[in-house]
Design brief:
Elements: H1 2-19, H2 22-68, E1 72-73, E2 78-79, H3 86-140, H4 145-182, H5 184-198, H6 204-211, H7 221-225, H8 227-246, H9 249-289, H10 294-319
């Protein structure tokens, strides 16, 4: 009896120690602080690089918007010359949106990890309190089997949740960072380098000078209604645009695909895969060590309920 009381008192002391953050400091000294700092540094650097790519694509997109929305006017009709480069503009726009989404996810991941480091000790204290309640039910009211099973499952839930906050999430980001440095980050860096090489060519000033030169003379009324003259003017602009984009279209498409693949693996595939694998492993291990199988627990509860119900009926019939 005294041993049980001592165990319960120790668990209550652990609960208070967890609230005070003493376990966090101990776990941090073991090595978790290094992983936390490494993850924070990785997410910070990735976010800064992503913002740099975003700014480069924004400059290119603003220049492309000049062409995409421009018109070559002929008296009879207006030709949207921007339609010629619509596919290229779409590639830049998709890469721009992908980079924006990737930057947001990286920042949110960093904020989530920082938030977890702030509140994880509360979950640890609740876990110790739940273990205390489970042992109290097991030691002092053993006849409440259903309550004991319920508290046991609740302890497993809190245990898996606490381990997820302390270990699974940090190690998921750490594992994802290792793979990203070998696979995703080189793709993004290559695409960023490619877009950087054409940033000046696609600036608003450069495009205006190369495709819409400012030295075009103001035409008179007769020239404006001359279809032959207007057609020749439009043809020249289209030829200039075709020559300008000829060597860049394929490269921009490849860079866009690499950015999409890089951020998809860096922000979603790698961390989510690591988290799912670790979560399933930890949950299965905890359930196995604590001897919990949901189907067996449910069957035992049903057997206990039916035995009580039918037992009372049989006793009444026997008494009658």
């Amino acid at each position: 009896m005294w041993k049980r009381i001592v165990i319960i008192l120790l668990l209550l002391l652990c609960c208070l120690a967890a609230i005070g953050g003493h376990f966090d400091r101990l776990i941090g000294k073991v090595g978790l602080d290094k992983i936390t700092d490494s993850n924070d540094q990785y997410l910070k650097e990735s976010f800064n690089k992503s913002v740099a790519v975003f700014l480069t694509l924004s400059a290119i997109k603003s220049g492309m918007a000049i062409i995409e929305g421009s018109e070559a006017g002929i008296v009879v009709f207006n030709l949207e010359v921007g339609d010629i480069v619509q596919s290229v503009y779409d590639c830049v726009d998709i890469a721009w949106k992908t980079t924006l989404a990737g930057s947001t996810i990286l920042l949110l991941t960093r904020l989530i990890l920082q938030t977890i480091c702030t509140i994880d000790h509360w979950f640890l204290s609740v876990l110790f309190f739940a273990i205390t309640g489970f042992l109290v039910s097991r030691y002092f009211i053993p006849q409440r089997v259903a309550l004991s099973h319920l508290l046991k499952e609740f302890v497993v839930f809190l245990l898996v949740l606490t381990i997820s906050l302390y270990l699974i999430l940090p190690f998921s980001v750490a594992g994802a960072s290792l793979l990203s440095k070998r696979i995703a980050i080189p793709l993004i860096a290559e695409a960023q380098s490619g877009f950087n090489t054409i940033e000046k060519d696609f600036s608003a000033e450069s495009l205006s000078e190369n495709i819409f030169p400012a030295d075009e003379k103001d035409e008179g009324f007769l020239a404006k209604i001359n279809l032959k003259t207007q057609y020749a003017k439009v043809k020249i602009k289209i030829i200039k645009m075709g020559a300008f984009f000829k060597d860049k279209t394929r490269s921009m498409a490849i860079w866009t695909i690499k950015i999409i693949a890089g951020y998809l693996f860096d922000c979603l595939v790698f961390p989510v895969t690591f988290f799912i694998i670790l979560f399933i492993f930890i949950k299965g291990t905890m359930s196995y060590l604590l001897g919990i199988k949901r189907t067996e627990t449910f069957k035992k509860d049903l057997d206990l309920m039916f035995s009580k119900y039918y037992g009372h009926r049989f006793e009444k019939r026997a008494g009658a």
